[in-house]
Specification:
The chain has 248 residues and is an all-alpha fold. 62% of the residues lie in helices and 0% in strands. Helix 2 packs antiparallel against helix 8. The mean pLDDT is 85.
Amino acid sequence: MFRVIFVNEFIGTAVLIVLGCGIGATVSLTFSLAHQAGNWVLTSLGWGMAVYVGASVAWSSGANLNPAVTLALTVNGTQTWAEFPFYIVGEVLGAMFGALLVYLVYKKQFDVNPDNSATGGIFYTGPKPEARSLGWNTVSEIIATFVLVYWIIQQAPWEPATADRPPELGNIALGYAGVAFAVLAIGAGLGGATGYAINPARDFGPRLVYALLPIKGKQKVDWGYAWVPIVGPLLGALLAAGLYSANF
């Protein structure tokens, strides 16, 4: 009992501080993505609400939407390994199709945009060039994804959806809106380092589509960085699942 109290209070307070103080860092440090970016609040809020809408639409499959979440829920036994590849393929292809839709919606804007040399950031993540460090950028993705995934699997009991019943989200009183708030907090507090992919499909799918799109004068895709938002989130998910299994 004392161990549970200590572990929960330790992790909860650590999450409180890393997100709260992270907000100060992301708006203060010169080469943070949020520094001097007046739209960072909109970015964080928009991604949080995007998760809410996407998860609400995909409730019948459990609404993973993220290979890191799928890996954690599979490792801890909530989902099966037989289902695993179907989740991953669906998530990656869905991310690619969503990126294509963005291009179609804004095609004319891309056509008349005077400078498309920085449009890659619309589709995929990455740090400011001055803060590019593959090792430390991976650490940033690990930490941000750990916070997200640990929050999700902590909401026990988590019961997957069935054909006629939405998932039982345990302690998530606000349902998928709760996940949206978590993503909003992560974006605001930890997103300035790398753009917070926290989702391999979210980064790789749009990155690949952007590389294929006929955008005049577009940014050269940084494939040398592309493994960071894949490996980092997956490691963060495994750490979250492992810590949860070790303590509960």
